């Protein structure tokens, strides 16, 4: 890939693993300087207790051709976010791309439980991690981003606005979290419009994140072995696919046409022509509606 983002400064908030890591690495591959944040470092684990660290992500960014800078931040702590943005301003004097990918609710969601049975403590914690973190980060980061036109903000969520509007996401708390982020992107798009900046709600498809691979007891190398447990996993994608979607948007001089839009990695792949690492273009959200939700046998033919 050409170093099309050389000289650009990005902040990927929530880049320890999953989509955040994939996005950070692809931004690095395009030449960007990428600040990667999260709570897990080599010396301190978060409540997740998982092995991936922000230092590893930063190293992957640098190995890909960019410059990765790891900063430990809890995005629920306003002072830490404030200090992060002050550091970016001090060291770079600009912020061109903000990716709000903070989540942290995988182990808090209680699937198929109605609100009166779901743990209230877990549900409210989930909402704080999914929504408050994004608002706190935007509050401090956007004044730096809007200093010049062309800035790009990606609000990462699960599901498009069209899909989430008509489908219950199997938990009130999860449903509210993922729908709220889409509306958050739309509202910020209105506020950033006068500054010539762009805000987009972006969802990957069925992500082959570290957590998802562990759930099925497979690795990226043998992920297809999971199809015996979940045949529809055939439509899944790597975290680098949504990362390439972010790069495509960031390098499009006319990306403002997407302002306020809810879109997906699959839709953007058709628009810009990029592929996943295996050369395919998985269109997960069309597949979910037309195959999985329709009760048809798993078959990704025509969907990747």
Structure overview:
The chain is an alpha/beta fold and 304 residues long. The chain has a single domain, classed as 3-Layer(aba) Sandwich (Rossmann fold), CATH 3.40.50. Helix content is 42%, strand content 12%. It contains ten helices and seven strands. The chain has helices at residues 18-29, 54-64, 78-92, 120-145, 161-166, 172-192, 210-216, 239-250, 265-272, 284-292; strands at 9-13, 33-38, 67-72, 97-100, 152-156, 198-203, 262-264. Strands 3-2-1-4-5-6-7 form a seven-stranded parallel β-sheet, with helices on both faces. β1 (9-13), α1 and β2 form a beta-alpha-beta unit. α1 (18-29) runs parallel beside α2 (54-64), α3 packs parallel to α4 and α4 (120-145) packs parallel to α6 (172-192). The protein is globular. The two termini are 22 Å apart. The relative contact order is 0.13.
Q: What level of helicity do the residues show?
A: 40-55%
Instruction: Estimate the global geometry from the Cα principal axes.
Output: globular
What's the Cα radius of gyration?
18 Å
Instruction: Give the end-to-end Cα distance, rounded to a whole number of Å.
Output: 22 Å
Main beta-sheet strand count, sense and barrel state? 7 strands, parallel
CATH class: Alpha Beta
Number of helices: 10
When the domains are counted, the total is 1
Strand order of the main beta sheet, please?
3-2-1-4-5-6-7
Would you list the SSEs in sequence order as H and E?
EHEHEHEHEHHEHHEHH
**What is the CATH third-level topology name?**
Rossmann fold
Strand content: 5-15%
């Amino acid at each position: 890939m050409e170093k099309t983002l050389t000289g650009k400064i990005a902040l990927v908030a929530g880049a320890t693993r999953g989509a955040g890591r994939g996005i950070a690495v692809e931004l690095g591959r395009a030449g960007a300087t990428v600040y990667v944040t999260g709570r897990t470092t080599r010396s301190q684990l978060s409540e997740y207790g998982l092995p991936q660290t922000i230092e590893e992500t930063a190293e992957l960014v640098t190995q890909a051709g960019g410059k990765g800078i790891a900063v430990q931040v809890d995005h629920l702590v306003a002072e830490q976010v404030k200090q992060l943005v002050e550091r970016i301003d001090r060291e770079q004097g600009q912020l061109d791309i903000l990716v709000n990918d903070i989540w942290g609710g995988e182990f808090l969601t209680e699937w198929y439980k109605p609100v009166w049975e779901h743990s209230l403590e877990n549900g409210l914690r989930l909402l704080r991690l999914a929504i408050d973190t994004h608002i706190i980060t935007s509050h401090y980061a956007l004044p730096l981003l809007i200093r010049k036109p062309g800035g790009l903000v990606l609000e990462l969520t699960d599901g498009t606005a069209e899909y989430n509007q008509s489908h219950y996401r199997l938990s009130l708390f999860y449903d509210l979290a993922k729908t709220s982020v889409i509306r958050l992107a739309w509202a910020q798009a209105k506020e950033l419009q006068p500054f010539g900046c762009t805000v987009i709600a972006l969802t990957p498809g069925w992500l082959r994140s570290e957590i998802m691979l562990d759930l099925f007891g497979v690795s990226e190398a043998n992920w297809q072995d999971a199809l015996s447990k979940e045949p529809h996993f055939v439509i899944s994608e790597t975290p680098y696919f949504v990362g390439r979607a972010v790069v495509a948007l960031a390098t499009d001089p006319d990306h403002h046409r997407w302002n306020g839009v809810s879109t997906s990695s699959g839709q953007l792949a058709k628009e810009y022509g990029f592929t996943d690492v295996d050369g395919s273009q998985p269109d997960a959200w069309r597949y979910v509606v037309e195959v999985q939700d329709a009760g048809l046998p798993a078959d990704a033919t025509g969907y990747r």
